[in-house]
Specification:
Shape: globular
CATH topology: TIM Barrel
Largest sheet: 8 strands, parallel, barrel
Number of helices: 11
CATH class: Alpha Beta
């Protein structure tokens, strides 16, 4: 049955319930051998970014599989890479429910989940038991009750535990749903965090005999001066990549819609232009010195092409999957890879 036929049934469920139900059902079908069979990516799809070979440039964004529970099932959808998390050092429940809202008229989602996850130890165990051997990013954050002044401790704790199991690690400092987290994008805080993490990365590289790249995920709600400052710090600290962008706190395009005034981060179609503009500004400021992964509001193959045209080398999907289903993955691959058309 196509996702277009299933979507009304899923949308009849509360959003977070539907999310969990869909993933559990897909995992069960995969274990029974009834899931989709992944196709080999065309040769021209391959990309080399951060020193990693990606079979195609279309990835899964963090947030959909916070605990790495569904890696093998999601790998069958044709992604060139997966990113799981955000994970924190200790388990935490996140914000009270309801905390996830669909806005179908705008093809959007608002979430204030608040880094709900089972903790980094559980995620590592799930990753170790997965059969997937493709490119895996692990997205790390801080616990809600950790003072912002001690945030670096949480990121270091997570980095140490995920380092042996990740193809790359993304540092999430841009979720709007953890109090004060976006302060870490400010110049002094940003420099301190990057310096701390790069020092730890070098230490871990010596211990494990491999270099695991670091990426930093930024917000779409930054002005030109902030983007320029972030770009300068990323280059100075030799961070391997940036992810642009996380969700937005802006509500211009959903004002007056049911749930449009809910607190949290807005994603989906209303984020497309804003995220692409930040991607373009960031890539221009970086002048090719740091690769950018484009995320935010990719609802079609054309949106994926726009992200690449703005300077991104890879893209990531999430909310588009809620509205389009797995067909969005193959559509984006086809749009970005000549041999897939």
């Amino acid at each position: 049955m196509s996702y277009a036929l299933l979507r009304p049934l899923l949308f009849a469920l509360e959003a977070e319930t539907a999310h969990r139900f869909t993933l559990e059902a897909f995992r069960a079908l995969t274990r029974l051998g009834l899931g989709p069979s992944p196709r080999a990516a065309p040769a021209d799809c391959a990309r080399s970014v951060m020193g990693i070979n990606f079979p195609n440039p279309v990835g899964l964004a963090a947030g959909l599989d916070k605990n790495g529970e569904y890696i093998d099932a999601l790998a069958r959808l044709g992604f060139g890479f997966l990113e799981v998390g955000t994970v924190t050092p200790r388990p935490q429940p996140g914000n009270p429910r309801p905390r996830l809202f669909r806005l179908p008229a705008a093809k959007a989602v608002i979430n204030r989940l608040g880094f709900n996850n089972d903790g980094v130890d559980r995620l590592v165990e799930n990753v170790k038991h997965a059969e997937y051997r493709g490119v895996l990013g692990i997205n790390i954050g801080k616990n809600a009750d950790t003072p912002i002044e001690r945030a670096a401790d949480d990121y270091v704790a997570c980095l140490r535990k995920v380092y042996p199991h990740a193809s790359y690690v993304t540092v999430n400092i841009s979720s709007p749903n953890t109090r004060d987290l976006r302060r870490l994008q400010q110049a002094g805080e940003f420099d301190h965090l990057l310096g701390t993490l790069k020092t730890e990365q070098r230490r871990l590289s010596d211990i494990h005999g491999k270099q695991v790249p670091l990426a930093v995920k930024i917000a779409p709600d930054l002005d030109a001066a902030q983007i320029a400052a972030i770009a300068e710090s990323l280059q100075r600290h030799r961070v391997e990549a940036a992810v642009a962008t996380n969700t937005t706190t802006a509500r211009d395009d959903v004002a007056g819609l049911p749930h449009g005034a809910e607190a949290g981060g807005l994603s989906g179609a209303p984020l497309t232009a804003r995220s692409t503009a930040v991607t373009r500004q960031l890539t221009q400021a970086l002048k090719g010195g740091v690769p950018v992964i484009g995320a935010g509001g990719i609802m079609s193959g054309a949106d994926a092409q726009e992200k690449i045209a703005a300077g991104a080398q890879l893209i990531q999907l999430y909310t588009g999957l809620v509205y389009r289903g797995p067909v969005l993955v193959s559509e984006c691959v086809a749009a970005l890879c000549q041999g897939a058309r």
